[in-house]
Write a structure and sequence with these properties.
mainly alpha, globular
């Protein structure tokens, strides 16, 4: 039952490699103006992997928690990579794993909770909102860092 969650952890590892080797950091700075060094990139992504391990391990003991990781993968794919690539008309490092791993695995994961009778609109909303908050957290920290350093 938790196989899609565990596979999303592996997908996230592949996603991190795609972003690193295709220089997501320079791309993100060019389109957003936010400066992120590689240490910060690895710290943020290590936290995501820890979240993924925790969510996968908890599994269906608390699916509303576990599926925040699925929500994060969905939000990351749709906003940070697919949406940004469309809006900016440029290839986003991380786009390939978003399309070919994150979206199919996230759909599979949501099908599993649907089959278990857990899936409903509040469940989807909570997991997507949770993923959105986690996605936004490093960005907020970057903005806070910029504000603190300027003082």
């Amino acid at each position: 039952d938790t196989l899609p969650l565990w596979m999303l952890v592996v997908a996230y590892a592949a996603h991190i490699m795609e972003e690193y080797f295709l220089d997501w950091r320079s791309w993100a700075k060019r389109i957003s103006g936010l400066s992120l060094d590689w240490t910060e990139f690895f710290v943020a992504n290590s936290a995501v992997l820890v979240l993924g391990f925790c969510c996968s391990n908890v599994g269906f003991a608390c699916p509303i928690f576990s599926y925040i990781f699925v929500g994060l993968a969905t939000v990351n794919a749709l906003t940070a990579h697919i949406g940004t690539s469309i809006v900016k008309r440029t290839f986003s490092p991380g786009l390939l794993t978003s399309i070919f791993l994150f979206l199919p695995l996230s759909i599979w994961a949501y099908v599993v909770v649907w089959q278990k009778g857990i899936l409903n609109l509040p469940f989807i909303a909570f997991t997507i909102l949770g993923g959105l908050i986690i996605q936004a957290f490093p960005i907020l920290l970057q903005l806070l860092k910029r504000r603190i350093i300027k003082k």
